[in-house]
Amino acid sequence: MQITSVLRRAAQVNPTGTATIFADRQQSWTTLLDRVARLAGALQKLGMTEGDRVALLSLNSDRFIEYFFATVWGGGAMMPMNIRWAPAECVYALNDAGAKILLVDDAFQAVGAEIKAQVPGLETLVFCGDGETPDGMLNYEDILAVADPVPDAGRSGDDLAGIFYTGGTTGFPKGVMLSHTNFYVGGVANAHELMIRDGTIYLHAAPMFHIADLLWFMAITFVAGTHVAIPAFTPDATLQAVQAHRPSHLLLVPVMLQMVLQSPKLDETDTSSLELIAYGASPITEGVLREAFDRFPNVEFLQAFGQTELSPVATILAPDYHVFEGKKAGKLRSAGRPTRVCEIMIADDDMTELPRGEIGNICVKGPICMLGYWNKPEVTAETLRDGWVITGDAGYMDDEGFVFLMDRVKDMVISGGENVYSAEVENALSQHPAVATSAVIGIPSDQWGESVHAIVILHPEAKATPEELMAHCHTVIAGYKCPRSVEFRTDPFPLSGANKVLKTELRKPFWDGRDRQIS
Amino acid sequence: MQITSVLRRAAQVNPTGTATIFADRQQSWTTLLDRVARLAGALQKLGMTEGDRVALLSLNSDRFIEYFFATVWGGGAMMPMNIRWAPAECVYALNDAGAKILLVDDAFQAVGAEIKAQVPGLETLVFCGDGETPDGMLNYEDILAVADPVPDAGRSGDDLAGIFYTGGTTGFPKGVMLSHTNFYVGGVANAHELMIRDGTIYLHAAPMFHIADLLWFMAITFVAGTHVAIPAFTPDATLQAVQAHRPSHLLLVPVMLQMVLQSPKLDETDTSSLELIAYGASPITEGVLREAFDRFPNVEFLQAFGQTELSPVATILAPDYHVFEGKKAGKLRSAGRPTRVCEIMIADDDMTELPRGEIGNICVKGPICMLGYWNKPEVTAETLRDGWVITGDAGYMDDEGFVFLMDRVKDMVISGGENVYSAEVENALSQHPAVATSAVIGIPSDQWGESVHAIVILHPEAKATPEELMAHCHTVIAGYKCPRSVEFRTDPFPLSGANKVLKTELRKPFWDGRDRQIS
Questions:
Q1: How far apart are CA B456 and CA B439, in angstroms?
Q2: pLDDT digit string (tens) for A376-393?
Q3: Which chain A residue has the Cα nearest residue B368?
Q4: In a 3-state reduction of DSSP, which class is residue B294?
Q5: CATH numbers and ranges of domains, chain A
């Protein structure tokens, strides 16, 4: 199984079809194939050999897609970096991975130069933007123009295809190693479950560095469809691209979907090409979903849940379960069922499967499971047991195979020996009309070990007291799960690169100087 | 990648859904999973250890499906045998593969007993039919009833999953070794391209031993659909099952499709559940297709081409190319385009890729390529080169990636140094109104090496002379391709188990005592 074989096939079955559209550029599958084989040659000339890591720090573009295929075509491994990282995080990851080459675009040229000084192994910077090439960098188009196409280096199967740094919510980034097989099997299975067909047009509105968008590189190439890209998500740029290029498929994380729904441009945009909007990577509220269903009555919605370690999709909630009434209602709060290339087990800490309905660690097995963490054999051994990836998410499975997420295991509040899942408490709070959003954390309690603390953002103009909210929760969930304390804030919550609330950050002031047992 | 993981997932997401329907039996995915784990235990008790071959000679049944999963669950390898074989061929294959256990049903109990005497390594016969258990055989349900479910033996990836004897058209059977990965990737990709969705109901009307039907074991299990089986194809049994169980998907080889179309029962059968009829394994005439389109206006038709060595699908002609008019017309004579998990190369004898439009060897690469031939390293080395399976079929690829089959390389006529593809000549003959079907072969010629000879079956009541047919061909194809001699016959052509015309048989009387260079 080779990532690049999918590209060759796409160029064989749809040679003149449009492969990528970006800004005022577009190219056919034949051209993309040729440029990839030449970029691979250029990277080899720059010293990329077997398994070498080539990093990229860039907004979305057609060149991102070329980079994806060219690194592995030439025998290297890709390493797309989180565009929200501070330079120090980039430096850490580049040193950890031992990357020799880094590509940066216009948005990151300054950061690139700053980083280089602190990464001794980094030999070459390539500028893949459209502006003036900065001093000390090679120009992407220049090196491509003089390079010869090279034969595929032939890496495949369990060979390393890329390192994807993750760990936004839980401290130091870890490099997830994914293989050719991970991408290949994940891609071919996702293409089916995402209802993609020959020639599907997909809009890369979410950041490409994030594996939730990156998976579409494979899925769309498997059907020789069209990749449309905008540099970065804004509701207006997204809507403009939808109108101009008529994509049928779109991935949005919930906060993006919400912004699109609130955009004043929405009503004047022709969105009739849209057939499916996939969402995931963070929880969505019923309110956003209802609004989305109303606004896009002809669009199917699909939820995907997973993590980088799973390449990344583990469960899918199919469009037919996106209903509030009827036989299939009641699953909308779940993350869906295992994809066709996953087995899922809810296990206790000894890896013993729990009965249906009991909450435990969500564990996933299948050809989409990562090779391990780069340079971290101990963490790898903790996370990958007997072929199972222990996701670190707590949840249960119902009798029909639907997985209900309760919490990150590390974000669970253990109060008086009882496990309290913050998602459940946040859910209860969200049913109060004044609450816009909330984050529930465990804070130290001499009596209970931890006690349930809620940080709440109210709707503009709305009013509520802590007592009112606590009383409301008592009408919805068991007493031991209800917040013992409530604070209000107006600033948005700190978010990870994947738009997850950084609960470590929220907990910090409370735990300063103390050890939290699960941290 | 594990064949059995797909079964476990199916039981997880659709536990109470119907997995198999056969005669008056039906069972849920939960029951099937349990029976498979117990049958695996029973086979282990009978001595099946790591990689051991367990053969089966049986008509279609639900137990065939249990056998498929249980052999690999228990760590063995399956070996379903061609039900059209003579006992001598079965004996050859069983001895070649070293099978220790053989399952036989009612239809093959006598043959089973006969075979056993000639296969010294064969220790156990299991009777998987519904009649009285013959002497000297164990009963399938009895051994299952007393067996405990065993844990999955854990074989996966490149481990041998089964041996599939093939070679009907070219002499001695060869055992094609297929792996867990072959079935897994083939299944997940086919499920998408065969337009299968969650819960699809498939009717096993074609013989299960044939890999063209066997691939649906995986594809339907990937979507936790329903397997409906009839013991053996007859048009009436097929139509009856369509009406009773309302399958949406059906695979028929062309001769079966023709028989269904000619059945007097067709008009009184409710076929409204049918959505897709897949066909393949042998050429189809335009006449049959036109009749099928007329009769099933709401059904999609899809052609698959491949061979056992490719697990088995290499190309698919999608439903939208099943048209005689419009932009997509003109592809109907092709075998379609490479599936999403194949690369195809048309190569000369040195494995150099030929330009589009030139005829050469069709070579296929991808995770569906066999491990090799059992016990035949030389033939394996000839067939598998640098990861490419050399199919032995001659053909060309057009500019849009469609593959046009010309001939089995071995059935090509080499006349005066020119290659003549029998398919092209047969095609020309079929356009004469009197011709029902024809087979074109090369016969010895002192002048040309070989000369083109046509054996023709006329429509009942129709009349034509050899001269007329030869003259007709001259109006359609180049002179050197036209038959130099024509003979008429009324008996049907000898067919292989896969319904291919056995041209070796037809050539035999002409070549008796002579060497044919390509044979």
A1: 7
A2: 999 999 999 999 999 988
A3: A1
A4: helix
A5: 3-394 (3.40.50.12780), 412-511 (3.30.300.30)
